[in-house]
Amino acid sequence: MSDIQAEIRSSAEGLAHRDSGQKWLALLARAGMVAQATMYLLVGGLAIELALGLGGKTTDQRGALHTLADEWYGLAALLALAVGFAGYAIWRFAVAVLGEKIESEEDVGVGKRLLYAARALLYASLCYSALALALSRGGGESNKEDKATATVFDWPAGRWLVGGVGLAIVGYGLWNGYRALSRNFEKDLKVEQMSGGERRLVCAVGRAGFAARGVVFTLIGIFVVKAALEYDPKEPVGLDGALQRLSEQPYGPTLLGTVAAGLIAFGVFSLARARYREV
């Protein structure tokens, strides 16, 4: 009888440890979504200021970090964002390795596991950038996308690799557009905890945000493919380049302002996800 009791006690302790680990991982994931929201709000806010003629600029996530570094509260903001980015990266790596979501234990397919691993690497690099800026508090921005593209061009079959990455980014942009149209992002939300008004608002900003992401990622992918075809590493390939190209088109301020508003909407949606998303 004592053996059975010991086994039950051991199983209970194991479940308690697992639940504790899940809670910590969920907390890290939600901190990461807040950091993600902050970046989209800042990038969108700077772009919409430019569209309205109030200053501002087109920038990407790292450019937004540089903007924060110049503020009096920059050190605290960068350190907080670094923690959030690290949490997001750990969460995505965990799901990629385990093959299941943390809270629902829903199985994750191979394709999504690879996508989660790629996102984890992206947010790990953002964590590094935030920490580096916090330590240096400044430093000039360099076009890392140009340098990276130029380096890959020198590899065997480098142009094909760059072109393939561009097509993958186009596909990711189209997938974001599909999410905006299908509203399938709702299945990851704890909608039962929302009121009717909250659900409608979260759905609306989510659709606007995913639509804006669809536009910018599709443009980024097109620019990368164009760089591969023309063997031109200076072709703009980042978020800042995509927004800048929008501003240069006929009715540029209107186009830029619309997409920037969508990016701000995605930031608001990310804040809602930090509260309601199943991780």
What are the SSEs and their pairings?
Elements: H1 2-51, H2 61-69, H3 74-98, H4 110-136, H5 144-153, H6 158-182, H7 196-230, H8 239-247, H9 252-276
Helix pairs in contact: 1-2, 1-3, 1-9, 2-3, 2-4, 3-4, 6-7, 7-8, 7-9, 8-9
The radius of gyration over CA amounts to 21 Å
> Strand content of the residues, in percent?
under 5%
Poorly predicted regions: 5-17
In DSSP terms (H or I, runs of 4 or more residues), the helix count works out at 9
Average pLDDT rating? 83
N to C succession of SSEs = HHHHHHHHH
The end-to-end distance, rounded to whole angstroms, is 39 Å
Name the helicity range: over 70%
Biggest sheet architecture: none
Q: Please count the beta strands (DSSP E, at least 2 residues each).
A: 0
Q: Assign an overall shape.
A: globular
| Structural class label | mainly alpha
Description of the molecule:
The protein is mainly α. The protein is 77% helix and 0% strand. It has helices at residues 2-51, 61-69, 74-98, 110-136, 144-153, 158-182, 196-230, 239-247, 252-276. Residues 5-17 have low confidence and may be disordered.
Keywords:
279 residues, mainly alpha, 0% strand
What's this, in brief?
By secondary structure, this protein is mainly alpha-helical. It has nine helices and no strands.
